[in-house]
Write a structure and sequence with these properties.
By secondary structure, the chain is α/β, with parallel strands linked by helices. The protein contains 4 helices and 5 strands; from the N terminus they run αββαβαββα.
Length: about 150
């Protein structure tokens, strides 16, 4: 009985440590769309805009900004590696923002809506609202698309 109690205590400590170390980085409040048509410019660099439900990406384009859309899943190992790198990339530029879409699972409404076949799945839109390049999980391709979109 003592071994089980000890094992449970260790698991709880590990889980709590993970939340402290990584939780705040990924716990971003979900907010509503910033309408580019209305000329609203969001001051938030990073926002989670969907937790599996359908979402219209054009509602989240920001006037005069490059918008990076990151389709990810909390359970996805490569997403956990790429996510912070993409966040660092957008922090380098005043004219680039990040909108994150948690697909939750392969059968979620947003996965079906955008026919997501892989995560991470990152899409870059230029300041005119046009997609630059193809959806990619590759950091170098994302950085190149952002550079092209900023021109």
């Amino acid at each position: 009985m003592k071994r089980i109690t000890m094992a449970v205590a260790v698991i709880v400590i590990i889980a709590a440590t993970a939340v402290v170390m990584y939780g705040n980085k990924y716990m971003v409040a979900k907010t509503g769309p910033a309408s580019a048509l209305a000329g609203t410019i969001s001051s938030e660099k990073v926002k989670i805009i969907s937790q599996g439900e359908t979402v219209n990406l054009t509602d989240y384009l920001v006037k005069d900004k490059v918008v990076v859309f990151d389709f990810y899943a909390d359970w996805c190992g490569p997403c956990r590696v790429l996510g912070p790198r993409v966040e660092e990339l957008v922090q380098k530029y005043d004219d680039v923002v990040l909108r994150k879409i948690n697909i939750v699972n392969w059968t979620s409404a947003v996965s079906k809506q955008y026919q997501i076949q892989f995560v991470p799945n990152v899409r870059v839109y230029d300041k005119q609202g046009q997609q630059v390049g193809e959806p990619t999980p590759n950091y170098d391709a994302i950085a190149a698309d952002v550079a092209q979109a900023r021109k």
